[in-house]
Amino acid sequence: MRIISGLIKYQYLQYLKSNKFVMPFAAFVVMLFTLYSTKPVSVVASLASCCLFVFLISSWIGTSVCSLEDTASEQIMILRLRSTNKYDWGHALFLLSLSMLTALLCLLIPVLINLSNSQMLFDRKLLPEDIIFGFFLLSSSAFMGCSLGELSHPRVIKDRKSALLMITLVDIVSVIKTSLTAAFPVSKFILWIVPPISFLPDSFAKEPYFIGIKVFPAVLLLFIYGLALTFVKISILQKRKF
Asked: In angstroms, how far is the first alpha carbon of the chain from the final one?
């Protein structure tokens, strides 16, 4: 466990030193202040909408993180860990922790805005379960986005421009998936494979409160999809070697 925690700490340091977090973080803050620039807003609907933006920004984060992984540094870390599996799944845990941190920030900023506005930002009082359920939804959305972005890894897709284009295209299709399947019902037989993020705003738009029986299946779906993307990436990396 100490080895994995050391790997996660190392990857955080590498990411922070690279300054590649600056642009996604700036976009993240702008998105939040734009979303909460009017009041009052629905607690449930606004957090569900945040999941879309968090997914997109996390996908950006995923692409920026894997761009730091050059062949030499990967090989050195694998030699130190004496296990390819430990390195790959340790990296996945790093992404998960980064996703949870993103979710915390996404909750902290509107809470602070709400407090600075005499708790008038939302259409009702913010409850502890709003924070808890919102955290789970945002974390799983962020993890799925990071996992998607990680498919742009140089050993998965060698051409960087093609990788970024593919991830961007999947991002766009994922966000408008519900509208596409409504306009072209036959497309659902193809689009089922893209990340299931677009259903969240519609599922929670009219809900005054979060309901566990609706939240947990959604969280499970997003997390399993993110885990599946991670497994695909790791399988490709281990098959192609260096």
From this structure: 26
Per-residue pLDDT, averaged over 11-30, amounts to: 87
19 sits in the region (left: phi over 0; alpha: psi -120 to 50; else beta) called left
| 193: three-class secondary structure by DSSP | coil
Number of H helices, E strands in the chain: 11, 0
Q: Which two tokens stand for residue 45?
A: 């609907």
CB contact burial 44-62 (16+ within 10 A = b; e otherwise): bbbbbbbbbbbbbbbbbbb
Structure tokens at 217: 């299946």
pLDDT tens digits for range 225-241: 999 999 999 999 888 77
Q: What is the distance between the alpha carbons of residues 208 and 38, in angstroms, rounded to a whole number?
A: 18
Q: What are the boundaries of each domain within the chain?
A: 2-240
Q: Residue 142's pLDDT is what?
A: 97
Return the pLDDT at 5: 83
Rg (CA), the chain: 19
Distance CA 80, CA 184 (A): 51
Reduced 3-state DSSP string for 59-119:
HHHHHHHHCCCCHHHHHHHHHHHCCHHHHHHHHHHHHHHHHHHHHHHHHHHHHHHHHHCCC
